[in-house]
Amino acid sequence: MKKIYYLLIIIVTIVLYYPVFNAGYVWDDNLLFVEKVKLVNEPLSWRILTEPVLPDTTYFRPLIFLTMYIEFHLFGQNPISSHIINLLILIFNTYLVSAITYKILLIKKYKNEIFLSLLAGLIYVVNPILVEATAWISGRFDLLVTTFSLLGIYFFIQIKQNTWRNSLNISVCFLLALFSKELGIILPLLLFFMYMFFNVSTEKSYLQNIKDFIADYYKLIFSIFLTFILYLLLRIQAMGDIYHQALDSEYLKLAYLQEYLPIHSLFFYIKQFVLPFSELTPLLPYEHLNDNPYSVVFKILIIILVFSILILGLIKKNKYVWLVFSILLTIFLVIYIVPITIANNVAHNRFMTLGAAYVAILVTVLPYQNFSKNLNKLAIVILAIWLILSSLITKSIVPFWKTDFTLWKWTYTVQPDNTLARNSYLYGLYQFRQFDEIVRVIEEYNSKNPNGLTVSDQLIYVNTLISLNNPEALKYAVGVDLALPKFHLMYKDKSEYKFSGLSNAHVASFYGSYALASSVFENNSKKALELNNIAYWYLNEDEKVSYFFNDVAYLYQAGRVEESMNLYHYLEKLKAYGKEYYDYNMYNIIKMECMNRTLKNKVVCDAEISEFINTLK
After folding, report:
1. Among the ranges 197-211, 244-258, 431-445, which has the highest mean pLDDT value?
2. Does pLDDT of 535 surpass 70?
3. What percent of the chain has pLDDT over 70?
4. What pLDDT is attached to residue 498?
5. Which of 9, 142, 309, 562 is deepest in the core (most CB within 10 A)?
6. What is d(CA 301, CA 309) in angstroms, rounded to the nearest whole number?
7. How confident is the model at residue 289, as a pLDDT?
């Protein structure tokens, strides 16, 4: 019977998430993994695994890069295998939730432990807040830190003796959790909270509980301490620093006094843990949250109420309070108490992946045997409605993560005034060559906003006009060039400047687009090469591959045929996701330049393209 129950978890997971089998790489997947050509072209090394997750940050997550390295070498850069692996991790996490619940129920001598442990797994796996971490490949950070945190909790519950072997098992889980994401740092506190859940009573003071914990688990405490020191040394050696942002007066003024970010963020997570039925898009900006002062007051009152109940629970020695504290602890690092880098968003649903596990455990280990019959019936009705709504919403939003087009169309539809949502939607449209829709969206935006397009929007518009073979692209590129500060002339290193949230990749993209326009509409391959060279200044080595393909065409047009051939032969040996697309763009540069130069003489241009192809061979 137990095996049949657990098989149901797999069936439910597949029913809810099967659209991911046809999904691609979306959002930051390319930046974080796919465009890191080192992961598929170089031998495995500590240097590759310990590169910062994002430029100019100290996010240190070598285990995730190791999983991507192994995956890419076994299956290639294939989104299907990436999604299957994420789904398998979710299923394993769900089993861990069930297993932890089962052990708790056995220790507490509750009835129906098999059914309730299954219920905990189902509550977890149908939760809509898990979609972002599961359907998005980059959510693997949150999935795996959840895996090793839950595994550490499971081993902790299993401990029979205070042995070095048991301590080592948990310490390995601690290190792997830290190697997955910085959230792993909370595991020691989660272990202590679980101890308090089992041992708190009216007969003992909290001080005595702490003394007993130290006496019972001094080997574990020592082992975890050494593990943390090891992690800290490795992190500093790889990153050169503990953290890339400072808790300075400027941050405190913005986050605490102007935007009230800890209040908005904490309220969001509390609400979302209970009612995860809305605000599920990947962008949740904090702009305009303070427009209604009554809303801020309401959120403060709710937070005060929640913590008043928890404090009362502490006073009354209620053991379930410690599971609630565990839930809140899982989001402590992302409620703006300390600076975080999440693009002006107040929160992200993927950050609740571990907390959702504790919600599922808490709901199923409550002492229902002590409830009245009417209260039990009410709990069953509420839980049934929650499960049905969660399942329907999860099933409905998973398909949105299929492509950049579907993801950002959904987000833009929900948040049409969000700058990043609009720009990302335009990018998705461009990927799927929906040029007419791009023009419509931009014209509609311009009619309502006299200040004009953002630089990011203009980059996409320039590329769109080029794709439509519209010479206006060159005029737009010249205009952006005049407005954009020349950072490559002002600084020695690209990491030294910040420009209104515009990333290095965006700036490089502009110069790449300008180079393309110069080649296609001015027949100026020399200028195109110079502009592409500027783009390289803003890019990491892994990000330059697509620009190299364009350089093959520019070099050929400039008469530097041998250099063009050598570069192309180098690129042919390189493994890179999307090489066919880069090839297409490269040939298209030759074609479009020829069509404009010869007034669309197809015969001449076909001959030129054939000669180009034969030369490269």
Report:
1. 197-211
2. yes
3. 98
4. 59
5. 142
6. 12
7. 85
Q: Which residue has the tokens 């455990």?
A: 361
Backbone angles phi, psi at 345, to 5 degrees: -95, 145
Q: Is residue 425 within 8 Å of residue 411, measured between CB atoms?
A: yes
39: left (phi over 0), alpha (psi -120 to 50) or beta: alpha
Least confident of 25-29, 139-143, 162-166, 182-186: 162-166
Q: How far apart are CA 455 and CA 507, in angstroms?
A: 9
In angstroms, the CA 382 to CA 375 distance is 11
From residue 339, give the alpha-carbon distance in Å to each of 250, 252, 313, 560. Answer: 11, 9, 31, 49
Give the torsion sign (CA, 540, 544, 545, 546): positive
State the average pLDDT over residues 269-288: 92
CA 408 to each of CA 42, 425, 478, 608: distance values in angstroms, whole numbers, following the listed order: 33, 5, 28, 39
Q: Which spans in 26-112 are helix H?
A: 29, 38-41, 46-49, 62-75, 79-107
pLDDT at position 312: 96
Yes or no: say if 593 and 469 are a contact pair by the CB < 8 Å rule.
no
Distance, in Å, from the CA atom of 278 to the CA atom of 288, rounded to the nearest integer, reads: 18
For 541, the token pair is 């080595």
Q: Give the whole-angstrom CA distance, residue 21 versus residue 302.
A: 41
Q: Fill in the amino acid letter for 416.
A: P
pLDDT tens sequence across 281-338: 999 988 888 888 889 999 999 999 999 999 999 999 999 999 999 999 999 999 999 8
Total count of residues recorded for the chain:
617
Distance CA 353, CA 127 (A): 9
Write the DSSP symbol of residue 496: G
Which alpha helices (DSSP H) does 200-292 contain, by range?
206-216, 218-239, 249-252, 261-274
Q: Which residue's entry shows tokens 């290095």?
A: 504
285: β partners: 345
Residue with tokens 């935006």: 445
- Encoded tokens for 266: 């904490």
Count CB-CB contacts under 10 A for residue 365: 22
Lookup: tokens for 305: 């109420």
Contact 525, 486 (CB under 8 A): no
Helix (H, G, I), strand (E, B) or coil at 285: strand
Give the 3-state secondary structure percentages of the chain, helix then strand then coil, rounded to 5: 75, 0, 25
Measured in Å, how far apart are the chain's first and last C-alpha atoms?
Answer: 63
Alpha carbon of 208 to those of 98, 205, 218, 326: distances in Å?
31, 5, 15, 21
Residues 286 and 420 sit within 8 Å (Cβ to Cβ): no
- 523 burial via Cβ count (<10 Å: 0-12, 13-18, 19+): middle
Name the 3-class secondary structure at 601: coil
State pLDDT tens for residues 334-384.
999 988 878 789 999 999 999 999 999 999 999 888 888 889 899 999 999
Q: Which helix (H) or strand (E) is 580 found in, with range?
A: helix 579-597
3-state class (DSSP) for residue 345: strand
Note the pTM of the prediction, 2 decimals: 0.91
Q: Which of 170-179, 350-359, 415-424, 490-499 has the lowest mean pLDDT?
A: 490-499
